[in-house]
Prior knowledge:
The protein is α+β, with helices and mostly antiparallel strands and 408 residues long. Among the domains are: 5-126, Adenine-n6-DNA-methyltransferase TaqI, Chain A, domain 2; 202-359, Adenine-n6-DNA-methyltransferase TaqI, Chain A, domain 2 (Alpha-Beta Complex), CATH 3.90.220.20. Helix content is 31%, strand content 25%. α1 packs across α3 (128-168) and α3 (128-168) runs antiparallel to α8 (362-401). The protein is globular and about 75 Å long.
Amino acid sequence: MTSVEKKRLGDLVNFKRGYDLPAHSREAGTYPVLSSSGISGYHSKYKAEGEGIVTGRYGTLGKMYYVNEKYWPHNTALYVTSFKGNHPKYIYYLLKCLGRIRTSDKSAVPGVNKNELHEMVIPFVDDKSQQLKIASVLSVLDKKIELNNRTSIELEAMAKTLYDYWFVQFDFPDQNGKPYKSSGGKMVYNETLKREVPEGWEVTPIEHWIGKDKTGDWGKDCQQGNYITKVSCIRGADINGINGTGNAKPPTRYIFKKNEIKILEPYDFIIEISGGSPTQSTGRLAFITNKTIDRFENPIICSNFCKAMSLTNNAYFFNFIYLWNSIYENNILFGWEGKTSGIKNLLFDSFVKNYQVTLPPETLVSDFSEIIRPMQDKKQRLLLENQQLTQLRDWLLPMLMNGQVTVK
């Protein structure tokens, strides 16, 4: 086993408060501003450089951010000014292992007091070669996760570009394989949309696309009475994670056996109908495939704050994803929200009944799906791999730090 000692954190590193960055002095630049929530902007000047660690002083507490460049540590954060001869990446993982750091700061807002943080006594591996080995093992896992994330982002960007090219600019391949509109394909003016669309394309309300829906459920937090079916319940907070841009950690719930009809299946969609914020509308969408279902131990349902639905024709599945996301990203859904007890609600039925869109020919949609399907399958495989790598890293982290596992 690795030799582990107990030491004051202040004997291992030195933390310092970050710097004020008043709004009137902000200048656009290339140096990241690291606040308690990570990169919060960029500035033309920097206050620190090289390997460093930043953590929240106020605001978001407990998260550690590793940096290896010139940067501006914000005044909502603490940053390491000296590693006192210790390996920076090892210290980064050591601090991550401490979990949610919060000291008895005397202010009204919960925070971290630098002096009290320095007095924390923690387990520590003094052998510098072992520090390097521990950091290397964990870094390999993090680098693979980061690579998978970058690949997913690139795949999604390719898919969005193709959708825009075919279904917004109408430069899908014509019968000769040339861009339809740019090559002189016939366009006709549509009075409803106030724009030209390809000849022969229908214009319909979104309602025309939608088949059945499934109401959400919350069930119970433990098995009791007729609540016996164990499920994972997708909330609004999990939608980005389902799509691959965040974490999906749906809670385990138990629902009535007769409500198993609410369990989600391939080709289902989840739409957030309650929530949002002043800068984020309701209406975020997640979609379900076989690969999505494979990422979860239990069958999945959606919560009462979401709506599950499917289409009348699954051939339009991938087309609908990018159609809806385009509507969402263009902030159109802000105009279709109401409020109940201060919570924003998407007026879903009214929106889909009244909002008109083009309905492309099924043959073209099928061609689009043949290109997009393998991209989405690969994204889901990468998300599953990241889930497994994260579990392995989080299992190894405390065992490496307390000496239960030694790296040879």
